Every structure is written in structure tokens, then in C-alpha cells.
Amino acid sequence: MRRPSRQTALVAALLMLALVAPHPVTAAVVTVINRDGPGEGLTDPAVRAPVGGNTGTTLGAQRLNALQFAADIWGTYLISSVEIKVGATFDAQTCTGFSATLGSAGPAAAFFDFIGATPSTLYPSALADKVAGMDLDRGFDNIRARFNLNLGSSGSCDLDFYLGLDANPATFADIDLVAVALHELGHGLGFAPAFNVSTGAEGLGLD
Predict the structure, then answer these.
(1) Which terminus of the chain has fewer Cβ atoms in its 10 Å neighbourhood, N or C?
(2) Pairing state of beta strands 30-34 and 99-100?
């Protein structure tokens, strides 16, 4: 048997490396879309000084920056070639003293039995898009997220959102919006029950 040349051996080694090396992956792009009307929530024009790395100069801009910061963190851990769209608003919700609804989020839609899916299995919108490799609900959000407008603005509410990006709220009453958004976006991505918690019955009869 002839001994392979050094060049042949190098080519063989490179081919083997190509076979075993991990393929490039695409970090997910998670985009927060302002669904508030003019002058409210994420478009509130009240002047604010930058805080904790958040360079926004209005209340609305700082809120949006904080939500997008949380979305970008999720994006670094997720792999998808399809943009994940988060429709976000600030709406009046319960807040009395130190008790409040901080926010909520969930998948805007769910899909099953599309190409690439496990049969009879329900997928939250963002995951369905990833598996399908395309936007299955073009023109619509993947996640619907709502945050409490009353924090910091209601006379009966002693809580406020901290809008810095440094996880360093000054007091117990300052609720870190980035942390809240990280939690709620997890629900929007699909960390949520799709069954009857009393009976165990599956939603739509699907896994």
C-alpha cells in the first residue's frame, strides 16, 4: 500500500473535520414592536434622564429600550432563522400599595401538523416558525406582551418600574422591568400550560 502524501492526508483531515465540526447556527433576532398609541405607554413623551445604561430620554423610549434589552438577551440563547416579533403595550392593570400585576405575555398563535412538525403536537408561534423555517403567520406578532401602566403613575400604587439595564434598582419599590420582561417573554415563547390544570385534558386534544 502506498503511503498517502502529506497533501492527501491534509485534505482527508479537513474533510473529517467538516463532518464532525458543528454547523454554524443562527442566533435568533427578537424584536419588540411598539403597539401603543401616540403619547401612551411605549410612546409616552415625558422627559427622563438616562438611568443605569438606558440612554432613552423619554419615559416611552426607556421602557422600549428595557424591553428590547430583555429580548436581546433571549435572542443570544435561542437559535432560529426566523425573526421573533413581540407586540408590546403598557396598559392599566391592578396596582394597590405594594401589590400589583406586573405584566403578562403569551404566544399570539399556535400551530400544528405543519411541514416539519411532530404530528398532533401544538407549537407556540415562535417555535413553529423555527421548526418550519419560515413565518407561518406573516404580518402578525409571535408574542403578545402587556405591562402595567399604573406602576409609577397611579396614586394608589407604591411601586414603579426601574428602567435601567444594569439590574440595580435603588429600592424595594423599584421593580426591574428587564427582569419582568425576561420572565414574561419566556411565557410568550411557550413556557406556558396548554392543558386543563384541573383535569389534565390537552388543549385541542394535542400534545
Answers:
(1) N
(2) unpaired
Where do we find the cell 392593570? Answer: 93
Residue 44 Cα to chain centre, angstroms: 22
DSSP annotation string for 111-140:
E-S-TTSPTT--EEHHHHHHHHTS-TTTTS
Residue type, 204: L
Question: What was the pLDDT predicted at 20?
Answer: 42
Return the C-alpha torsion angle 74, 78, 82, 87, nearest 10.
Answer: -20
Give the separation between CA 140 and CA 114, rounded to whole angstroms: 18
Cα 6 to chain centroid distance, Å, stands at 50
What CA–CA distance (Å, rounded) separates 207 from 196? 12
Q: Would you give the DSSP letter of residue 43?
A: G
Query: Strand (E) positions, the chain?
Result: 30-34, 84-91, 95-96, 99-100, 103-107, 110-111, 123-124, 143-148, 160-162, 174-176
Q: What are phi and psi of 22, to 5 degrees?
A: -65, 145
